[in-house]
Structures are given as C-alpha cells and as structure tokens.
Design brief:
Blueprint lengths: L9 H5 L8 E6 L2 E8 L2 E10 L2 E8 L6 H22 L6 H15 L2 H14 L1 H4 L9 H10 L7 H27 L28 H9 L3 H13 L3 H6 L5 E2 L4 E8 L4 E8 L2 H11 L23 H11 L9 H12 L4 H7 L4 H7 L1 H13 L5
Antiparallel strand pairs: 1-2, 2-3, 3-4, 5-6, 6-7
C-alpha cells in the first residue's frame, strides 16, 4: 500500500480521490480489503481470487464503529469472509495458506511485529518441508518427520540442544496456526498435530562459572594444543569459533590487541573488534604466534589441521571428567567465567562488552547478579545515615 493510497486511518482515507475502483490493501495471498471513496464518505469491500475468479463482498460504511477502528474491523470481517470461502474449498487448503491466514490473524489481533516474526519463522522453517501439504492430508508422521529434520547433527550436545530448543518454539507457532484453522472448521480434526510433543529438557543450558581452583584443575588436566586453546579462552573470554579463526596477523603486539570476528544477526553479517590483551594474555599469544606465517591460524589441532566445528567437544568432556568439574560445564563456560571474574574485579561493563564483542544489554541480562554484588560492595563503603 503506497503512502498516497493508505486506507488504515480516517485522515488518510479523507485524502483519497473519489473513484469507482476501491483502494486495496493486501490481507492474504489473493485476498484484499478495499475502501471506495464516495462523496458522502465511503464504504468497505473485500475481494478474493478463488478458482481463477475474483469474488467480492461489501461491508457498507461501518459507521457503527469509531473511524479509528474501521480499518481493523474491515480487515477482521474480510478475513472471516475469505475464511468462509476457504471452508467450502478446504480440500485444497495448504499449510502455506494456513500460515498466511495465521499471520494476518496476528496482525489484526496482536501486532504487526508479532505477525512478521511468526510468518518469517514459519516460512523459513516450515514451508520448505510442509508448505505444499494439504491440511486434509497432513499426518502426525509428516510433522514428526519435519520435527526430527530440524535437529542439527553434531558431536556437540550444546549445538543439538539449541536446535531442539528452536524446534520447540517453531512447533508451538505451527500448532497455534493449525489450531486456528481447526477452530474455524477449515479442517475437521486436529489429530495430525494434537499429540506431537516438543523435545523435553532442552531449555536454556545452565550457566556454569568456574572458580579459580576449578580453572587451574581444568588447565592441569589438559595438554598440548588443546591446553593452549583452553588458556586462550580463560584469558580473553572469546568464543571457540572466534579463537580458532584468528590468524597470526590478527595479533598486534605493539598495541597489545587481538582482532576477533564473528557472524551474527540478520544476514549473518561479519562483526569484528579488537580484544585488548592483559600482560599474561599477550605473552601467551606471542608464544602461539612465534615462527608462524602471518596467515597461519594461532591455534591448530594436534593433527596439524585447524580446529573445526565440534572438535573441542570430546577433549573438553575428557578434561571435565578428569578435573571433576560440573557435568554441565562446556567450552562456553570459559566465557562465562572470564566475564563474571572481570565484573567482580571492577572492570567497567562498557569496556567488557566492547572487549568481548557483545552488548552492555546482554551482559546486564546474563551477568546481572555479579553486577549487583559490585553495587552492594560500593554501597557498603558509603555511610547512608
């Protein structure tokens, strides 16, 4: 809908020129709600393409509603009318049609943001596998197969856990859309999805923070190149992928920094920053870089090859067992450990966020309890009475 032809507000509708052809707003694939400007105001209509024919209906001027509510009411009534046509043709109603309808339902009844988020996730994760499935032909086996296909294959249990957690969230959205179709009698039964259960115990992993003695035990139970990798993580708080991608030329000995990078957010954009190294960390990385070419990776596997995705899992599990650390400890726990210790030692959250390639908001969200401890210590230094 162009800015000149908007119909979602009273002011915008008053600016429209009078004409026989309504001004249209797209609701769903093939379905539009329209406003026809007339001399005495206007009236609302809906059109929907079905069986290669355009079908129309009118709702009048909707004057029984406040002007600020008329657009939403028109969308609601148009959607219900389109849905009534869909019931007559439910044999051809696909999962992709359900997603379009559910997204529109959220836009009208919740928010534009909720609609876009759900539609985007379902189109990305559900359409490729189930989009062309007719609702009347959809089976529990179809959904179970899709659910299993969403789980990533990896030796790293954390990678598997996260993919199952994501699958659970998408499954919740999918079932909500299917339940809406069922309640509107587009499909006569919900047996295809009613008994599809989410994965159990895959919520956010418990955060493990190692104390100084635990960190020393971990280092003491590792050796060779894996030992160096563990030490790098404890000295910088960098993620596994960031450390294993870093090359010799990323190390600036004069400035005492290590250039790190990661791909995050929409579009998988590359983000880079300079991690400032303390004296111990700088000395450690200088040893790693010694006698290596500029494009050589700072960390190499004992096989002589670069560290790949998931390569750290097995030696990490062995070291955790030998060091008698909590079973929930992961490589990422070294990042938790670094950030929590830095906060306890009074490092500014802004400096820490910049050095770790994250945001202040994320540190406040996940490490708030350590910051509260600092605040309490500072307050205890001041007499309030």
């Amino acid at each position: 809908m162009s800015t000149e032809n908007k119909i979602d507000s009273k002011t915008a509708r008053r600016r429209l020129s009078q004409r026989r052809e309504p001004y249209w707003y797209k609701l769903v694939k093939g379905g539009y709600v329209g406003f026809r400007r007339t001399a005495d105001g206007g009236n609302w209509v809906v059109r929907y393409r079905q069986d290669k024919k355009q079908r129309y209906s009118s709702f009048g001027d909707l004057s029984e509603y406040d002007p600020s509510e008329q657009f939403d009411q028109a969308c609601k009534q148009a959607r219900e009318w389109i849905q009534s046509l869909g019931v007559k043709n439910k044999a051809r109603y696909k999962v992709s049609d359900m997603i379009e309808y559910y997204a529109d339902h959220l836009r009208v009844n919740n928010s534009e943001k909720a609609s876009k988020e759900v539609k985007g996730r379902l189109k990305k994760h559900v359409i490729p596998e189930l989009g062309e499935k007719l609702l009347t032909k959809l089976t529990k086996q179809d959904i179970e197969k899709w659910k299993k296909g969403m789980v990533k294959v990896s030796d790293d249990p954390e990678t598997v856990r996260r993919s199952k957690d994501t699958t659970n969230r998408i499954l919740t959205m999918l079932k909500a859309g299917l339940n809406l179709a069922f309640s509107n009698e587009v499909i006569g039964t919900d047996k295809a999805w009613k008994h599809v259960k989410p994965f159990n115990d895959v919520g956010e992993a418990r955060k493990v923070f190692l104390d100084e003695s635990q960190s020393k035990r971990l280092l003491g139970k590792t050796k060779g190149n894996f030992h160096d990798l563990i030490k790098s993580a404890l000295l910088t708080g960098a993620r596994y992928s960031e450390l294993t991608k870093a090359v010799v030329s990323d190390l600036d000995i004069q400035q005492g920094t290590l250039r790190l990078s990661t791909k995050k957010g929409k579009g998988n954009k590359l983000r880079e920053w300079d991690c400032v190294l303390g004296n111990e960390a700088l000395s450690h990385f200088k040893k790693l870089a010694k006698d290596k070419l500029p494009n050589a990776t700072l960390h190499i596997h004992d096989s002589g090859e670069p560290w790949g995705a998931g390569y750290q899992w097995r030696p990490m599990q062995e070291a955790i067992k030998k060091a008698k650390l909590p079973t929930a400890t992961t490589f990422y726990a070294l990042r938790h450990t670094y950030i929590s210790r830095a906060l306890k030692h009074g490092i500014s959250v802004h400096i820490l966020a910049k050095n770790c390639g994250t945001s202040v908001r994320m540190i406040e969200k996940h490490y708030g309890k350590f910051m509260q401890s600092d605040i309490r210590d500072e307050l205890n230094k001041v007499s309030m009475t």
